[in-house]
Amino acid sequence: MLKAVILVGGPLKGTRFRPLSLDIPKPLFPVAGLPMIQHHIEACAKVPNLKEIIILGYYPPNDLSNFISEMAQKHDVVIRYFQEFRSLGTAGGMYHFRDQIMFGNPSGFFLLHGDVCADFPLQDILSFHEEKGNSLITIMATETSKEQALNYGCIAKHPMLDYMTHYVEKPSTFVSNLISCGVYFCSVELFETLKTTFKRKQENAYNGLELNGKDCEAMQLEEDVLTPLAGTGRGYVYVTSKWWSQLKTAGAAIYANRHYLGLYRTSQPMRLAPNSKTVTGDVFIHPTADVDPTAYIGPNVSIGPDVTIGAGVRLKDTIVLDGATIGSHTLVINTIVGRHVKIGSWARVEGTPCDPNPNKPFAKMDNLPLFNKDGRLNPSITILGCSVKVPSEVILLNSIVLPYKELTRSFKYEIIL
Ligand code: GDD
């Protein structure tokens, strides 16, 4: 029997996702019509013999409870949420809830970061892990550019035997362009390693050694476990060439939306709106949305529940969240329209895509800071926080509008507070 653990962090994480994470916990932000971690759950539920999915975070349980019960009803898998009493790190929560994870004697479990999106090759990772026999953990890895690798966990591996020879978390100089995707398969014996690590940290804290003010109850899988495991022959690296990306910023959500919609085309075409004279490419329209038949939609658009789209509206590379209204003949491109936003007629709302550089092989998305060196906003997608009102006939370009703001004029490259 197998299990899966999904790490979702908590309210203090996901700050780069603001203002969208102000009214929706980041793991539940809809991408391609589904809460971000529903894509993880669906991938896990497809693995034969996977019986339980444990979601670990430090969100108050009420934030996720409706979602968890909805998921439990939809899938033939037990789904539970456990709240860490505070941030315990990428391995601390797993160790804290080891009895719950071990309950029922699973032979191993997947460990997935909630803030990545991918065409998860879980069955392949499992077969790879089993083939290696003595592996404590198999890390899914992908290639990236030399410069971008510094933002990730960098791995070196034996070219033939695939065991990890070196691991450095976010190195300051180049180590390898093979990076950890935050997707793992763990044998239950890994808990022995976690126990030893936890004990060492406690002893060091007790003796006043080593910690330099760091939290001794938190454990990071990357620095505390993977780095020491490198070279021991007990950690293996599975390299994927399938699509994978981090989902740290709102800009990444538009990129992820496109890819998840693209995956529906082969795996779940029923989820996509049929193409017609007015719907092109991959488009998700929630059945409760009211879309005028003259609106021209797509490609890469997701429209949430109870959304109203007026006549002659043009939408492209955009996510429209529940309850939003877009007035007639308005154009919206590269934008996230928050919940219950109202946009008038004949308006233009536009952002700049933040896709990976297509000319650099293996490039991932750049998670650019909000501001450039001159203190100006970096061009990015436009984001309208919840319940924002945009009047008719205005232009909104590369701007971020915080929740509940009522605009009265056009804006370019501004954060509107
Ligand atoms: N439950 C729980 N508790 N989850 C946590 C905690 C915690 O204390 N801290 C982080 N997480 C979750 C986050 O919500 C996120 O889903 C994931 O763990 C990764 O956490 P980050 O701390 O944001 O790390 P990162 O994304 O910068 O880097 C990690 O992921 C990269 C791949 O996306 C590292 O593992 C890198 O090596 C890796 O390349």
TrEMBL record:
One Pfam family named in its UniProt record: GMPPB_C
A GO term, aspect molecular function: transferase activity
Residue span, Nucleotidyl transferase domain: 3-226
Superkingdom to which the source organism belongs: Eukaryota
Ranges of residues in domain Mannose-1-phosphate guanyltransferase C-terminal: 280-414
Family: Belongs to the transferase hexapeptide repeat family.
Descriptive protein name: Uncharacterized protein
